[in-house]
Amino acid sequence: MILKLLIFAIVAALIYKFFGGRFPKIGRSPHQKKLDQDTLVECTKCSTYVTVKESIIVRGKYYCSKECAA
Questions:
Q1: Which of 1, 43, 53, 69 has a 20 to 30 Å separation from 16 between CA atoms?
Q2: pTM of whole model > 0.70?
Q3: 52 contacts 36 by C-beta, under 8 angstroms
Q4: Closest by alpha carbon to 38, among 51, 25, 48?
Q5: What distance in Å separates the CA atoms of residue 70 and residue 53, rounded to the nearest whole number?
């Protein structure tokens, strides 16, 4: 009986550790929130601020021009 309880506790701890101690929440992540078209974002390369609609997005990062995105 104690052995079964010990095995169950170990399996539960491994599952908890595998999921990082927390389960994903339902809904949109705060990091993935949709930005308004007039919101200013910083160019990853040169730190210039441009609006979202004028920016170039490559692999989830914002750039002010094709030269910076290259």
A1: 1
A2: no
A3: yes
A4: 51
A5: 19
Structure tokens at 14: 């491994």
Structure tokens at 44: 């990853």
What the block records as the tokens of 53 is 């609609």
Structure confidence by residue, pLDDT tens digits, 6-54 = 999 999 888 877 776 665 555 544 555 567 778 899 999 999 999 989 9
Structure tokens that stand for 19 in this block: 């999921």
Burial 13-45 (b: 16+ CB within 10 A, else e): eeeeeeeeeeeeeeeeeeeeeeeeeeeebebbe
C-alpha–C-alpha distance, residues 44 and 6, integer Å: 50
Q: Give the DSSP H or E segment for 33.
A: none
Q: Which two tokens mark 46?
A: 């040169």
